[in-house]
Specification:
This protein has 126 residues and is mainly α. The protein is 65% helix and 0% strand. The protein has nine helices and no strands.
């Protein structure tokens, strides 16, 4: 499975955990509709939120995730992210409005799939 590809079983598990959050369900349904392809789903969701992602740029989601790096890598959320517990950070993103609600889960899943500690390494003290 490709690194930007989310297994449909994981999507189903997340749909249960996020059942009370309509935007999260829309995001997960879009990821499922895109056969687990995070990049395709993120582009689709970005367009729905009024953004105009560069469709020729296959690294658009990576760029969005990097813009959110400071929020993602906060110490109080890092262990949850490593463990795949996205809800605390999702709720934090909702409060601080780091990115559109429909794009929060694609960003968090991208970071998790690429390795939270590796993703956060540029912010770690030397």
């Amino acid at each position: 499975m490709e690194i930007n590809q989310i297994d449909l079983q994981i999507i189903e598990e997340l749909q249960v955990k996020f059942a009370d959050i309509p935007e999260a369900i829309v995001s997960l349904e879009t990821i499922a509709d895109c056969e687990g392809d995070l990049e395709d789903a993120a582009m689709t969701l970005a367009i729905r939120t009024g953004q105009q992602p560069d469709i020729t740029n296959s690294e658009w989601l990576e760029g969005l995730a990097k813009k959110c790096r400071v929020a993602v890598c906060q110490s109080e959320f890092r262990n949850d992210m490593v463990d795949g517990n996205f809800l605390p950070l999702y709720q934090h993103f909702e409060r601080v409005k780091v990115c559109p609600k429909l794009l929060i889960l694609p960003v968090l899943l991208y970071v998790h799939e690429h390795g939270v500690n590796r993703f956060c390494q540029p912010l770690d003290p030397m």
